[in-house]
Amino acid sequence: MNTLEKRKVCLLGATGVGKTSLVMRFVRSIFSDQYLTTIGTKIETKHLTYGDHELVLVLWDLSGEDEFQRVRLSYLRGAAGYLLVADGTRRATVETAIALHHVAAEVVGDVPRVLVLNKADLRAFWELDDAYERELTARFSVFEASAKTGAGVEEAFRALGHALLQR
Amino acid sequence: METSIASSILASLEKVVLERQPDGTFLQRGSAPDWYSRMLRGVLRANTPIRVECMFPFLSVFLPEAEAVWQAESGGLTRLDSDLWCETAESGEELPLAATALLVGPCRLLVITRCDELFHERRLVLQRARELRITHDALAREIEQKDILMHCIVHDLANPLQTILGVLSSLDERHPPGEDGDMIALALDAALRQRRMIREILSVFASEHGDLDTTHEETAISDLRAGILRVVAEHELTARGRNVRIERDVPPLPSLVVADEPRLLRVLANLLDNAVRHSPVGGHVRVRVREEDTSVEVSVEDEGPGVPPSLATRLFQRFGRGIGPEAGTGLGLYFCRITVERWGGSIGYAAPPEGGARFWFRLRKPPSSTGTLAA
Predict the structure, then answer these.
(1) What domain range includes position B67?
(2) DSSP for B43-97, written as a single string
């Protein structure tokens, strides 16, 4: 390996969108149907290889944003990038992700980020119409993913990792 | 000896005590709990200086905040607690942790505690709250869908009714003699009543679902005095039929309020209709307007039996209707409440000591030189 780099990446999104499930799928290749809410912050690491480069992603899985708990902005400090996560079956969670994007950008600046629309296995129940998805695609790197089946998960994280190495 | 006991107690409480060194590294003080010892595998000696932020990445955001404690002058902040965070040990074991920064004499201490119980209790409460929120949202969506379905059904019911009304009106205009005429009049009356009820239901639906066009905005302004005069005039014929007299006490000049005219007329009509319907034969209904500094109050009083106390608390709720032949759909007063509240006003009921019923609502006066007079 020529290089080894370590980068902090935060996962941001509303409650119950599947941030922890995406991390568990990506890091440990497991998925559980049982919903366990995240308390505070959960930290995991994952090694990725891009040719001669090895990248260590330190994933900060932050507790979901809702009326019971707010995301602590100080936890974003030092983040090289972030994953915005939304649940395609709940349009409001996309709005929350976009709002968190604006907040995060104020703290960490214009850093690489991707928007993951989770629960692609429930595509038939999505509340997003084509026009809205086109609008999102124009603003973000959007990945449709399913923590349950694993589809699109690796791609989303790898795309963010690739963008981090470009900087 | 005492130090050794204290150290063992801390370890058995799942706490590790680290002392910050001038170069930013930390040294372990006292015994370490098992979970920490397992994490230290690979570190040669327990008193090797370590970079805790490398061992626990979460501390990279806590340590800068902790400096406020460690650098404090005497009398300043001497303790700071972190939020909970969770590390995953190499074995896959989940470690819920919390850190505390302390200044004890000259020692700058960082205490890291494994707190499984607190973590699981907090998770239980938060998870329950979030599950309830998700259930609530799903139910709200389901109710909304059912409301829309009901709206469609009621709307469709109104179409054939228009034909029935047309036919009955044509028959009525021929003035058929005897029993036929009475039956047609009866059927026409029932059909008109049914149309009123359907309109009431559709009005409520429109209000609840924000079906507001430009004249229904919260900034629309209407002349309350003109509205009262119009609605009273419309109800005088019905009132005379019951030998009820409507008395009005309105200001001589236009009285502008924040409200849109079509709905204001429906609110007034609802209250006046109720008052006339519940008035005894030969009774009086009084409509009064009282100007206040920033609002205008309208009251409608009748001399009927009043509202039973058991019903008074839910008068303005959906389907909070009374009993007996005079009871409506249970949506009229509900419509009045949600409409008046949308304009920033209030509505209520009072039982006058002398008997009867007194309904009132209060609407905001518009800020001077703003708003548009709704047509």
Answers:
(1) 2-114
(2) -S-TTS-B-HHHHSTTHHHHHHHHHHHHTPPTTS--EEEPPPEEEE-TTS-EEEE
Q: How many CB pairs under 8 A join A and B?
A: 62
Q: Which residues of B touch A (CB under 8 A)?
A: 57-58, 60-61, 64-65, 83-88, 96, 119, 122-123, 126-127, 129-131, 133-134
Interval A17-64: pLDDT, tens = 999 999 999 998 989 887 788 888 999 999 999 998 999 999 999 988
Q: Which of the listed residues B114, B141, B168 is the one where a domain comes to its end?
A: B114
Mean pLDDT over all residues of chain A?
92
Residue A36 at interface with chain B, using a CB cutoff of 8 Å = yes
Write down the mean pLDDT value for chain B: 84
- Beta carbons within 8 Å of B288's beta carbon, 6+ residues apart: B248, B249, B250, B298, B299, B301
Whether residue B359 sits in one domain with residue B238: yes
Q: What are the chain B neighbours of A69 within 8 Å (beta carbons)?
A: 126
B121 domain residue, yes or no = no
CATH of residue B281's domain is: 3.30.565.10
Q: Is residue B306 helix, strand or coil?
A: coil
**Position B137 confidence tier, pLDDT thresholds 50, 70, 90:** confident
pLDDT, one tens digit per residue, over B233-254 is 988 877 887 789 999 999 988 8
Number of domains, chain B: 3
